Amino acid sequence: MSGDDINADRMLEAMANNNQPSTINQLNGCTSKEELDLIMHIRRTILHLDEDTTNDRSSPKKDTISTTTATSLSTATLDFKIERAKQKFAAGSLEEAFYECWKIPQEQRTLEIWKIGGECCKKLRVFAVAQRWFSEAIHVCRSNNTDLNVKLEQARIARFFNTYLTQYPMIDIRVDERGKGIYAKRVISPGEDIFTDIPLVHAQTVDTLSISPACAICTTSLLTPAVYFETTWSRIPEKLQRQIEEYWPHITPISCPYCPFELYCSEACRQQAWDNYHKILCPSFNPETTELYQFCANGQIIVRETWNSIFSPMILAKLIAMIILNVVNSVQNGTTQNSIDLNYSHKLQQTDDGPLEQAKEIFSEFISSGDATYIRTIPRMLKIMKNIFNHSSMPIHYEINEQEFTYRFYQIACNAQSFSSPTYATTIYTRFLSNIRQRDRTGLYQLLQTYLKGEPIDQVFGGLFPLQSSLNHSCDNSCEIMDCQVTPEVAGIKVRCKHQLKPGDELTINYVDLALGRRARRAMLKRAYNFWCECQRCTFEGDDAYSCTECKTLSPIIDNPNPNLTNGNIPYRKPFPACSRCRNAWYCSPTCQKQAWKQGHKLICRDWTKERSSSSAN
Ligand SMILES: C[S@@+](CC[C@H](N)C(=O)[O-])C[C@H]1O[C@@H](n2cnc3c(N)ncnc32)[C@H](O)[C@@H]1O
Could you give the C-alpha distances from 210 to 71, 214, 420, in angstroms and in order? Predict the structure, then answer.
């Protein structure tokens, strides 16, 4: 090995360990540690190959790493190198082909070289590098190239979901005009559990927060007798209270030491909340968050429609707090991780957006789609978020403006999935009753009859699940979502197959109640998820009895059947008869009905009111 080789090797090793940006630039645009690692690996492989091929002109022994300094190549050398990269790629020698591409100075790499380099990395499963090479190809290409855009998107998805797809080899993620979707790679049978997922960020829904307390981290119910019996508790005689407590499952909620707003089941959960988001959001340190916590605790009737379901504004605040703390931890190298004082000794460098952009990447896969003007109708929440985060005491500056708020709002609105720990409030209550039935000899159950209020309301959380959020909707969904204790400490969801799936079939869930008619389903999907459903069921159902679902003919106009009521200028029509089984399609004639049946109505015709519709309604 020449002296140049050894120096280049040392430099590469040092950089691979250190990833110093200044030295990286010397290496022909090799910008990430992953890229360096790949090159290191390739170099080792090539050197190893070279030991058996000493007379090979292309041997890296002769064509050393030192040739990668950014001196321009002559046209003849460039053509020769391009040709060699193409040949190696065609021969399937991916590592060598990438090495050839990489040796060409960045400014001289052609569209073809960026593409070959990207393909090599994709096949070698180094997706971050593949993503960069394909985006450079798009940059060089200038015109809109669909093929390259698809390649870039695939590399980006592979990069993000690589771990999941390795863990769950029976599924694949592909992209079409609806965005990402999950597809079966083998036959999957009804009842089979396909994958589990845990949320990146979650919060309890505002409508269950005050009536069904739960651990803010592991979501397990923290229903105590005092909360269950509510105002009645103080009227229950003390002796009876003690008996109730004796039979009630052991629950000791822990609160944040600085504020009354969050409850946890254990010290470990409390610490996790503090490290992940609460040190930014605790009202004792950031008084601006008091309004947000109060807003959630009250259920805020006025804007209930926006926030009452799976989407609590707390998810949005936590998501931003997590990004901020991620930057803090990455820059300060974890020094603030376990500390519970907010002593950010120095404000982080405001000029360098790198760590902030990197931290934002964790949430970059969640699609965001919706009507931007709607945000103007909920100005109060934008103001609350601005007050919390556009604040001089924040360790980094993360600007919350209308655009950022809108983007994050719809990210959560489009993707939030309801879930909770299978230790529900009803589980606690059932255990209490069963303890009494099994152990009590004093007739407590009889005594309690006047105080018991029936089953409690279960806690519900909304969360952003990285893999589950890639599932598209169908009104005839093939899969369903179920609550699941993914590990003893972590609650999440599992996706279970409902209808048999063949390789290539899409895994879908239902975002809305399947018992609703087509018009209502489509309207809800448009409003909440910003798409017009064209699924198989929507295709073979109608909106109402006044037009034939098959031939679209309008039904005959008739006289007003009730002259006491007026319908304005809209004519009265005679309803067409409905399909007797599903009652969701209407036909002008038996011919149309037969035709529709053959076309596809038979695939979706069933009594939808009997379908379990709540399981995965987002
Ligand atoms: C939870 S995400 C599903 C995954 C999404 N396709 C992606 O790329 O991340 C929900 C969004 O996907 C799109 N989507 C889901 N189901 C769809 C469908 N049946 N038709 C059209 N778009 C759909 C809508 O943009 C919706 O807001």
Answer: 67, 10, 16
Each residue of 476-518: pLDDT tens digit?
A: 999 999 999 999 999 999 999 999 999 999 999 999 999 999 9
Q: Has residue 237 got a pLDDT over 70?
A: yes
ipTM of predicted complex: 1.00
pTM for this one? 0.81
512 C-beta closer than 6 A to ligand 1: no
Give residues with Cβ within 8 angstroms of 177, minimum separation 6: none
Listed residue (257, 529, 513) closest to 411, CA to CA: 529
For residue 418, report the distance from its CA to the centre of ligand 1, in Å: 17
**Nearest atom (ligand 1) to Cα of 414:** 27
Cβ atoms 460, 203 nearer than 8 A: no
Q: What pLDDT does residue 601 have?
A: 97
3-state secondary structure 507-556: EEECCCCCCCCHHHHHHHHHHHHCCCCCCHHHHCCCCCCCECCCCCCECC
Residue among 472, 481, 527 whose CB has most ligand 1 atoms within 8 A, to mutate: 472
Domain boundaries, the chain: 3-167, 202-337, 531-610
Measured from the CA of 417, which atom of ligand 1 is nearest?
A: 1
Q: How many residues does the chain have?
A: 618
Q: Is the CB of 618 under 6 A from ligand 1?
A: no
